[in-house]
Design a protein that fits this description.
- The complex is a heterodimer of chains A (335) and B (275).
- By secondary structure, chain A is α/β, with parallel strands linked by helices.
- Chain A has eleven helices and 13 strands.
- Chain A folds into two domains: 219 residues, Rossmann fold (3-Layer(aba) Sandwich), CATH 3.40.50.300; 63 residues, 2-Layer Sandwich (Alpha-Beta Plaits), CATH 3.30.70.
- In chain A, the strands form three sheets. Chain A has a six-stranded mixed sheet, with helices on both faces.
- Chain A is globular and about 70 Å long.
- In chain B, helix 4 runs parallel beside helix 7 and helix 6 packs across helix 7.
- The radius of gyration of chain B is 20 Å and the shape is globular.
- Classes of the chains: A alpha/beta (335), B mainly alpha (275).
């Protein structure tokens, strides 16, 4: 059974073009010039029920626009979509009963009231029976550990606490399809981890289909079984996360600051590493995880290099995307 | 969730949702105590000025009648129109803000009509403020011109106030929904507010206006939101109450159709901002 299917789904925005300065403002007022800006360029996608799919892409790639079209709040410029057997923008209200959506940058909670008041409203709006609402909210409060701040006004909650309430709230009406748009944005590492665990648990215990957008590859690795990379409004890659981890997310970046001046040739670099930059005493080193492990690289430095600071990061998403383009080019040449 | 045969259960569900929105709006309103206090003191100030002004116009004569109104009727008339005017929330500013920062997405994702949501919220807020403003307004009017012993006039006021708030909501909604097309609605909102103040009968009963202006006002919706309920309160009259209710119903139907059309067109081209 399919959770959603799109065919050539796309959106073009009409944007007013304005020259800088006062003269530009006046000209734009008298003779406005419009420019067509494609946000999503015809996406073909199929998601089965119970799948966990990630939309990965840099800012402005078209991830949120796609989610907005699939939830029915944005009318597409062309193409078709079917979500749980319904046309999202034509049957928005009917679809609303069966899907849940969290926008990481927007809140559904009433700012001056405690979360329990919003829960109560949601229970009514989704027409939950009273006893069912009571049972369901108790269950979610327990699972999401909301007890301590359920009666605190939302404005006094931390971002992490608020996000937990936001996600718990979206599960109240038992959606069979969940859209999460950047659910971990702005959260610290520990809270991010907890939110991911909660989403994963809910996917397992309730069989909810999850479509998530993120520009954090760790969200994708830990939550999803399939990844769809969106870039410049189009599908760049659609494959199992395992394969992406092996082929694309197989790099880490180490930033090393030494305590004393060191030449590049003096830094021991094993096979599979590559010093990409040196600024002052800081080296940026790329590690190919397929050929060597981060701990082996670090182990080689201990006792030989005086380390002042060290960080290990995922490469920026733009680099990963460049890598995917490169890999595609190689494939096409080989074919 | 759809289908003609399930109309009654759907209406009942809609009513329950509206009641839930009304309840949470009132709870949220109670958090804005400073705003309440400010509005009430401003109301006291305005009414104090009006009482001074009209006492001078009537030369302190309680029996004198100007344009069919005694000073007592005119002062209480102003209490009612002010209480109604200041009961409304800034709908256009709210919708404009929702469109600009993209929060409209959260509302549109609910299985509830967007306009219906705002109507429930507007009505709840207006009902609470209206009653509060009546109480505060009485503090000035009662000692200055005497008790509001209008008998059936109260029935007229309360029965027409519901329609009045609905007409005011629809007028504001027609402007608020322009935010789906244009960036700024505050200019239109300014014009609407001034029309309500003048030809809506907030500052002066329509009866005291020149004949030709009265004829123009009769064909406009503004009097339905202020003049009709306040006039019904101070000049109770069964047949004109029915006529007033019919005028309100006609305007609610016409403006309701306009707002529904605007929403349908607007939702199709709405650009929901923000990531």
């Amino acid at each position: 059974m399919l959770a959603l299917r799109t065919r050539g789904l796309g959106k073009t925005f009409k944007v007013k073009r304005k020259e800088p300065g006062l003269r530009g403002s006046v000209r734009s007022l008298l003779r406005p010039e419009w420019e067509e800006k494609p946000a999503v360029r015809g996406i073909d996608l199929t998601v089965g029920q119970g799948e966990t799919v990630a939309f990965l892409g840099p800012n402005g790639a078209g991830k949120s626009t796609t989610i907005k079209m699939l939830t029915g709040i944005l009318h597409p410029s062309f193409g078709e979509a079917e979500v749980l057997g319904l046309s999202p923008w034509k049957q928005r209200s009917e679809l609303a009963y069966r899907i849940g959506t969290v926008f990481g940058q927007k809140s559904q909670l009433w700012y001056h009231l405690p979360p329990v008041d919003t829960f109560e409203l949601i229970g009514r709006v989704y027409e939950l029976k009273r006893e069912d609402y009571a049972r369901r909210s108790r269950e979610l409060i327990e699972r999401f550990e909301l007890g301590p701040y359920l009666r605190t006004p939302v404005r006094k909650l931390s971002l992490g606490e608020r996000m937990r309430c936001e996600i718990a709230a979206v599960f109240l009406h038992r959606p069979s399809l969940l859209f999460l748009d950047e659910p971990t944005i702005g959260l610290d590492v520990v809270v991010k981890q907890r939110i991911r665990e909660l989403i994963r648990e809910s996917n397992r215990s309730e069989g909810t289909t999850v479509v998530l957008t993120s520009h954090d590859p760790t969200d994708v690795e830990e939550l999803c079984s399939r990844v769809v990379v969106i870039h410049h409004g189009g599908l760049l890659l659609d494959e199992p996360v395992e394969r992406m981890k092996r082929d694309v997310l197989n790099r880490k970046t180490i930033r090393l600051t030494t305590a004393s001046e060191l030449r590049e040739s003096e830094l021991p670099l094993p096979e599979g590493t590559n010093a990409v930059r040196k600024e002052g005493r800081t080296f940026t080193i790329e590690v190919d995880l397929g050929r060597t492990a981060v701990e082996d690289v670090l182990g080689g430095w201990i006792g030989r290099v005086r380390i002042e600071d060290i960080t290990v990061e995922d490469p920026p998403l733009e680099e990963t995307i460049k890598h995917i383009y490169g890999r595609r080019g190689e494939k096409e040449e080989g074919a | 969730m759809s289908g003609g045969g399930r109309l009654l259960p759907r209406l009942a569900a809609g009513r329950r949702k509206a009641a839930a929105v009304a309840r949470i709006t009132i709870r949220q309103q109670l958090a804005y105590r400073a705003d309440f206090a400010l509005r009430c003191s401003f109301l006291l100030l305005i009414l104090f000025v009006f009482v001074q002004l009209w006492t001078a116009a009537y030369e302190g004569d309680r029996e004198a009648v100007i344009g069919g109104f005694t000073i007592k009727q005119i002062v209480w008339y102003l209490v009612f129109t002010e209480a109604l005017t200041m009961a409304g929330s800034p709908l256009a500013a709210k919708v404009e803000e929702e469109v600009k920062n993209g929060d409209i997405a959260v509302r549109l994702l609910r299985p509830m009509s967007y306009v219906g949501y705002h109507y429930s919220s507007y009505l709840a807020e207006a009902a609470v403020r209206f009653v509060l403003h009546l109480a505060v307004g009485s503090l000035i009017a009662w000692p200055s011109v005497g008790a509001p012993d209008f008998g059936f006039g109260w029935l007229g006021l309360f029965s027409l106030s519901f329609g009045a708030i609905t007409v005011a909501f629809l007028l504001n909604a027609a402007i608020a929904l322009c935010a789906f097309w244009v960036e700024e609605t505050s200019g239109l909102q300014f014009v609407l507010q001034k029309l309500q103040f003048t030809i809506g009968g907030m500052l002066l009963p329509v009866d005291l206006m020149p004949e030709w202006l009265q004829r123009v006002c009769a064909w406009l919706p503004f009097q339905a939101s202020l003049y009709l309920p306040a006039k019904a309160a101070v000049h109770p009259d069964g047949s004109s109450l029915l006529a007033s209710a019919a005028i309100q119903a006609a305007w609610i139907a016409a403006l309701g159709a306009l707002v529904a059309y605007q929403y349908r067109r607007g939702a199709r081209k709405l650009h929901v901002n923000g990531g």
